[in-house]
# Entry
Amino acid sequence: MQKNVDHLRLRLSKENGVNGNGALTNGHKSPLIKTPSDPHFQGNTIEIPASRTSISDSKEFMHNLSGSPSMKNRRPSRNSFGASLPIPRSPRVRTSFGKETAGTRRDLLASQIQDLSKEKVAAAKNMAFVFDIDGVLLHGDNLIPESGRVMELLNGDNELGIKIPYILLTNGGGKPECARTEQLSSILGTPISTNQFIQSHTPMQALAEYYETVLVVGGEGYTARQAAENYGFRNVAVPKDILAWDPSISPWRHFTEEERKGARPQDFDRVNFDAILVFADSRDYATDMQIILDLLQSENGRLGTKSKDPVATQLPIYFSHGDMVMPTEHKGLPRLTQGAFRIAIEAQWKALTGGNLERTVYGKPERATYKFADEVIREWMKEIHNERTIPENIYMIGDNPQSDIIGGNMYGWNTCLVRTGVFQGGDNDEENPANFGVFPTVLDAVQAAVHKELGKEFKLRWSDKIIPAMHHVQTLLAVE
Ligand code: G3P
Ligand code: MG
# Structure
């Protein structure tokens, strides 16, 4: 396989699978990690050819294998796996959050109406929405008001009383899926299941089949560790564990007793890291960059060592998305996010070693993420309509032309750009135009898409009185 996996396997075989490398902590031994390149490997992983590098490539800092962010000038990228990103073969079973809330009364009436409207029902099941979160549904933790109505409409407050499928696909992350969907359910006022939710690092669970000991970077507190452990990584360290072991590793950092409480220090000079995974925005650029650069330059991923040829032995590093900026509550320009952090690491690596950092970037607009989304939609269709199919008419609704829209366009989805987030341009984005159009808000986009698929007369509200023939059902219900 490609360079870094070869590197991992070389290390594992060098140590005969019983010493050091495959194993990690404090001399504990670990089994040899198999990789999908092994002929007898049977895992839950498929590798998706890389479509492009991150949107946030800043040409002056990027190595010559990086792609352009423009659809007009795309090139495939090299990454730690050569030209592919591993994703889970199928979405893993995850814990759902919340209970379905559709009322019995509406369900009963709706099933009668749906029997009479088979074509519309088929059309409603043959469409699906994929929502970006930041800048489309929310600003930070605040609801964009139109989102509430969108949820109602798609959850059954429509002429047919039918659930129109939707999933959430965000480049955000940094905590377990169940924690984020619980938070989203509360803000959006509707239960969001983990089975309809993908955050930037969700597909990176596939990497647990490749790497055992990982440094996970980003997010608040220690929640990113929990996410990685849920994915099956066996040994997960975060920079604060390393700070707790040796605070001098980050000269200007004051590590508080409060922070130390959640840390899991160990003898990190005896641990071999297999890979670095950036799951979310760094909350401490100086410390995180220092530790990342230490590990990238190390001998066999061991802190305190330096490789004789760091460029040749560089530790694999993965970023969960490449967005350069994100919308927040801030009133000025959109705020810098993980793409900016990555570019800084790349520049530092170049300055220190003269080499080009090899890295893999997941998230939108990478094809692997959209492929994973397809599988999630298929499973979600099974859950809400008992039909394991992928609807033909998928609408991606996003605010960032350089991730949501370019990715959706490349994947063959309908794309809608909204004006509530990163995009602040004119009629449409010039480099990556949304093919279904630009809309003031998510509600406008959803209404336009529903009318396109279900007809202009399709009513966007449920009414018990919608079909006179149903009145006897109402009467029966009233009597009960
Ligand atoms: O850090 C970037 C993230 O906030 C973007 O999230 O939902 O717009 O993909 P989203
Ligand atoms: Mg967004």
Notes: Residues 1-32, 53-82, 93-102 have pLDDT under 50 and may be disordered.
